[in-house]
User: Which sequence fits this backbone?
């Protein structure tokens, strides 16, 4: 079976600076795949290119057998690909419920309300504060909202960019266990993280990025126990 | 007391006109951070659209049912102008330095004024008068003349029409922005365009909607202006546009309620200044000075405007 998402020889440039220098990776249906690496490794750039916010300089992106590297950003979500961006980027001056409903903007079916309830079941705090402006939320609550919002499009593949950034260890645990829950409910996940340990524990497969290139790949377990990864990302020597 | 009440009525009428135009500046700014200095001309073309509709279909008639048709003609003319302007002049400049679209806006403004001045009487298949002079605006029963007098205060029917238009437009706009899916999409684009695209919102389409929405309100203001002044010319967009822009900044650019409040405050201050500033600085000759003085005072002490956007972002 061909992978759900396949990125091949992807290059992305900002003007003259090439941020992603020819990377290839794939995500199979039902998997959690993680891209790890330090700041500036090109992780966020890669996700933004898959979503259509950036255009590749070279290479191809194929989702469910269809080339998507020419598809406009606003049409990507209707294909079943949702992106919860770095820094959460919730709409601060709109209510929690309005944020969630915007996640379903591209949909027109009758089950949006059902999915809204599902988001509230996943994160009860969102239900309790559904009429509150999202900008008043704490970082962890905003992260829950960003994930709930992304799920409102009923994605087949959910891309999460640094969901644990700036969160307390407790909140980080909560978010990571939600990722696990979503996977078990059938959502495929592409997870970008600086917190390598947490991400690799969950991941079926991982790729290590360094200044725009993939330097290492393997199963989550392999990478967790790899000496190179332990030295560079898990703070051990 | 009578004169005060009279000036208050005059100020609210003028302010309603400013407010209707100011919404267009603020809606477009909120979405693309562009000051569309050609918006005054969209208002002027609305007035000419109404006039053209009248001359083509109803010449010589005065009954009230003509008015809605004239408003539709005005809205079509203004919205078409604004949408074409966005497509041809602004969209190619998206991502360009901020100065480029600003200069373009001034260019379009001059272009549209001259276009109407030179070509209005040369449109094929019509017999329109030359726009090089003032053109009388049709008198319509029910919206021209005196509505009533109470205690020495005279209220014109056209004033009631203008204020009524503002109230109705403000209510519809509020509903559209806060209660419809498209309105929510507009808010999303104004708060974070990239993330809005991730939601599946076509930002280009929302920008067109913003231009069209502002143009429709400006068109209605154009009709109101024609009824109030009894004549129109190709220059009416310049001063009205500048005042409405002032109103938008006064209320807090990007904030729709702000544009309405700013317009009304500006109109009332202008009217009261005409009446109450004593000596050589008083009277109508100095009203524009006081209007802009108010702008400067607000910008010094409250640069975000009277109702400047509340910032609750903590992303």
Assistant:
């Amino acid at each position: 079976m061909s992978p759900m998402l396949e990125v091949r020889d992807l290059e992305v440039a900002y003007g003259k600076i090439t941020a992603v220098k020819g990377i290839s990776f794939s995500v199979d249906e039902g998997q959690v795949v993680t891209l790890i690496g330090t700041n500036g490794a090109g992780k966020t750039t890669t996700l933004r290119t898959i979503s259509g916010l950036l255009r590749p300089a070279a290479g191809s992106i194929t989702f469910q057998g269809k080339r998507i590297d020419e598809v406009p950003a606003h049409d990507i979500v209707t294909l079943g690909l949702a992106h919860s961006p770095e820094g959460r980027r919730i709409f601060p001056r709109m209510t929690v419920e309005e944020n969630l409903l915007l996640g379903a903007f591209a949909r027109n079916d009758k089950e949006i309300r059902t999915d809204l309830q599902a988001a509230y079941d996943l994160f009860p705090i969102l239900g309790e504060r559904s009429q509150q402006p999202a900008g008043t939320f704490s970082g962890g609550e905003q992260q829950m909202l960003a994930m709930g919002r992304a799920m409102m499009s009923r994605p087949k593949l959910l891309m999460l960019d640094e969901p644990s950034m700036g969160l307390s260890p407790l909140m980080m645990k909560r978010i990571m266990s939600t990722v696990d829950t979503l996977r078990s409910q059938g959502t495929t996940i592409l997870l970008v993280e600086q917190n390598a340990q947490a991400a690799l524990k969950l991941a079926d497969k991982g790729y290590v990025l360094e200044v725009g290139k993939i330097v290492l790949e393997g199963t989550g377990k392999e990478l967790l126990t790899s000496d190179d990864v332990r030295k560079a990302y898990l703070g051990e020597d | 007391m009578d004169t005060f009440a009279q000036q208050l009525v005059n100020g609210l009428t003028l302010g309603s006109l400013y407010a209707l135009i100011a919404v267009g500046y603020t809606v477009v700014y909120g979405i693309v951070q562009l000051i569309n200095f050609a918006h005054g001309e969209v208002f002027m073309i609305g007035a000419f659209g109404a006039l053209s509709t009248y001359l083509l279909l109803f010449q010589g008639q005065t009954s009230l049912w003509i008015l809605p048709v004239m408003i539709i003609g005005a809205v079509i003319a203004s919205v078409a102008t604004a949408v074409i302007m966005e497509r041809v002049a602004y969209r190619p400049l998206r991502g360009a330095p901020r100065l480029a679209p600003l200069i373009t806006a001034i260019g379009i403004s001059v272009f549209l004024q001259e276009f109407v001045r030179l070509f209005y009487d040369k449109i094929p298949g019509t017999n329109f008068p030359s726009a090089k002079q003032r053109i009388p605006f049709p008198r319509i029963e029910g919206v021209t003349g005196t509505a009533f007098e109470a205690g020495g205060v005279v209220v014109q029917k056209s004033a009631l029409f203008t204020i009524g238009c503002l109230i109705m437009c403000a209510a519809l706009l509020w509903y559209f922005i806060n209660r419809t899916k498209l309105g929510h999409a507009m808010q999303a684009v104004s708060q974070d365009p990239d993330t809005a695209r991730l939601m599946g919102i076509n930002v280009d389409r929302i920008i067109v909607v913003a231009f069209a929405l502002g143009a429709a309100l400006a068109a209605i203001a154009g009709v109101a202006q024609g009824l109030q002044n009894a004549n129109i010319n190709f220059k009416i967009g310049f001063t009205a546009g500048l005042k409405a822009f002032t109103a938008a900044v006064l209320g807090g650019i990007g904030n729709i309620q702000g544009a309405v409040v700013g317009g009304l405050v500006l109109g009332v201050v202008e009217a009261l200044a005409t009446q109450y500033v004593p000596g050589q600085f008083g009277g109508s000759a100095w009203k524009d000075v006081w209007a802009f003085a108010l702008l400067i005072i607000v910008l010094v002490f409250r640069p975000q405007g009277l109702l400047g956007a509340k910032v609750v972002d903590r992303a």
